[in-house]
Each structure stands twice: as C-alpha cells, then as structure tokens.
Amino acid sequence: MPRILVVEDEVHIAKGLKFNLELEGHSVEVISDGMKAYEAVSDGGRPYDLIILDIMLPSLSGFDVCRGIRKQEIYTPILMLTAKSFDKDKITGLTVGADDYLTKPFNLEELIVRVHSLLRRRNWDRKRPAGPPDLRFRDVIIDFERALTTIAGIEVNLTPIELKVMRCLAAAQGRVVSREELMEVAWNLSGPVNTRTVDNFIMRLRRLFEADPSRPRHILSVRGEGYRLVTDPWAADGGSTE
C-alpha cells in the first residue's frame, strides 16, 4: 500500500485529503508543521512514496522543506499545493525539486489523477513486461516505458521530472537541446527562461550519472546553446563539458 505524507496546515483541507486518499487505498499521514514534516521525511525511517506539500506552513515553508529533502538526496515525488498562482512561485517550486504543482482551490478529481500518475512513475505499477531499455551509457540503464533506472545494477528511483529531462536528451540523439526546450518539455513552462533553473537541475543529474560530476563525459553543455547527451564520449565531436 503506497504511503503518502500530506503536509498541510489548513485543517479542513488536510482532513479532506486524508479521507479521499484513504478511500483510494492509500496509507495517509498528516503533518501541519514544516519543520516536523522535514524531520519526519529525514529521520531515516520507513520512506514515504509521495509527499503532498503546501507552501505556506508554520516554522518552515514548503519551498524550504522541499529544498532540504532534495539536499539529502531523498527523491520521493513531491506534489506542491499553494494558493499562489504566480509563475515565479511555480518556477521556484519546481526548481527546488518538486515534481508537480497544483494551485488552490483545486479540483479533487484532478489531484487524485496527479497522485496516481506520480505513484505510477514511482514504480507501483509494474504490470508491463520488461522491454529493452531506452537508454544505456556508462553503467546506467534507463527503461523509460517502465520508469526503471539502474546504476551499476542498483535500482535508483528517479523523479518524474528527472525522467522527462533524460528522455528529452535521449530522444535528441546527441543533438543540442536548448534550455527553453527542456523547460517546456519537463516543466511545461514556456517564455523567458531563468537559465539557472535548468543549469542547477543538470548539475543534479550529473551528480547522479557522472563518474566525476565536475568533469562530465555524458551530459555535456554547449556554450550559449543548451545541453546534449553523449552515450559514447569517445565518439563525441566537440562541445563544452563545463
């Protein structure tokens, strides 16, 4: 049974989420304080399979909770809830590591669909037979169809956005992918791009997949253009690796 943490200080919303998610067959815990939620996720106990995280919280904001969780390399999917509808808040939430974003007041049916989607990507749905991996490089194997990733034979749980970015880079087959394209495909955002949003996320992927993240051989930057994925660095034909 998937285990969900709801971090919400509005009592009626928290109760409604708990009731409806439990009707869907999930185990739900509710915490109303940001610091307590951060400690619950970080204490090394039984991990959660999904976190529904409000932004406006006592003691520690949802942004800070999410940022702290990701700094500990805990990649549990996070769905952010907020009364703020400004693009900058959405960008901030996704930049600090959230996987999805829903603005209050939200449609309950839509939230349930998003929860199920995130849990499927968390590998609760493994009914499909294994097919050939979509991407291999170094000791990394990524099967995008089943959302399964292994590094040196060890299974690693990628967040939905991490999978989207890697799929986008893989589909380009060595072509340079612009920051704007990555933002649109992975974050569903268009228009002017804060380049640091993408750059910081690429640094996170390099820490996962590169033997030496400071000298990448596979996820390469091309100055002034964007990023490209090189599965065979010996066959790479130029481009900055900074």
From TrEMBL:
It comes from the Bacteria. The modification 4-aspartylphosphate is found at D54. It holds the Pfam family Trans_reg_C. GO terms for cellular component: cytosol; protein-DNA complex. Residues 3-119 form the Response regulatory domain. PANTHER family: DNA-BINDING DUAL MASTER TRANSCRIPTIONAL REGULATOR RPAA, REGULATOR OF RPOS. This is Response regulator transcription factor.
